[in-house]
Amino acid sequence: MNPAHLNKKKCGTCGKAIVLLSGGLDSATTLYYAREKGYDCTCLVFDYGQRHKREIESARKIAKSCGAHYKIIKIALPWKGSALLDRRVAVPKNRKHPAKEIPATYVPARNTIFLGFAVSCAEAIGAKAIFIGANAVDFSGYPDCRPGYYKVYNELIARGTKAGAKIKIFAPLIGMTKARIVRLGMKLGVPYGYTWSCYTGGKAPCLTCDSCIIREKGFREAKTRDPLVKR
Question: Does residue 170 sit in helix, strand or coil?
């Protein structure tokens, strides 16, 4: 899954790639990583009825800062099933990590849905790579962020598309700690001040949801300051 064997090349020399861009720290780092590896990136940004739109605006800024094409994909998940889709469901606060249970912020089959769009787009525009900022080390335990899931999804693409095995999903951050991701992003010049990770939205991060806690851990262990946190 990790295209680490690729040498640094000029943008576009590796062909086209689709990048799933949420506006968060991991997806922004993944976009800059794909560009560094020489891909001409098209970002898919999903407006799926999530609790706030702050992350969509962050994604726009990040794509523009990287010189990448981007498309806003608006879809509806009317059955809800997640704290990120239903304001009546509380966002869990101050959870200890790693936690055994999958939290209420899990959106049922979200990555499966998003990757379906990405595969369709890749086939349509002739892209051979799909990048996603999934992480299975410092994460909330979501099942669609684990390595085995992407192995099976790549098999699905090979069996169920005209392009077949020519299209592959890459999750370059999947085995990294959050601190390592932060350090990589700083090396790549990721504008972390544009990113947004907090589940609750607002003008400033809540610092108590899973995403904020994991993000804080990453910057602290990387021994650098999070530009979103005013001290």
Answer: strand
Amino acid at 86: D
Comparing CA positions, the residue from 231, 138, 129 lying closest to residue 182 is 138
Query: Count of residues for the chain?
Result: 231
Beta-ladder partners of 19: 43, 131
Task: Say which CATH architecture domain 16-221 belongs to.
Answer: 3-Layer(aba) Sandwich (3.40)
Q: In sequence order, which residues have a C-beta less than 8 Å from that of residue 66 and are 6 or more positions away?
A: 31, 32, 35, 41
Of 3-17, 158-172, 184-198, 216-230, the range with the lowest mean pLDDT is 3-17
d(CA 196, CA 205): 8
Instruction: Name the token pair of 21.
Output: 């861009």
In this predicted model, what pLDDT tens digit does every residue of 28-56 receive, in sequence order? 999 999 999 999 999 999 999 999 999 99
pLDDT digits (tens, 9 = 90+) for 177-196: 999 999 999 999 999 999 99
| Rounded Cα–Cα distance for residues 114 and 55 (Å) | 16
- Would you list the domain boundaries of the chain? 16-221
Look up the pTM and report it.
Answer: 0.94
The phi and psi torsions of 42 (rounded to 5 degrees) equal: -115, 120
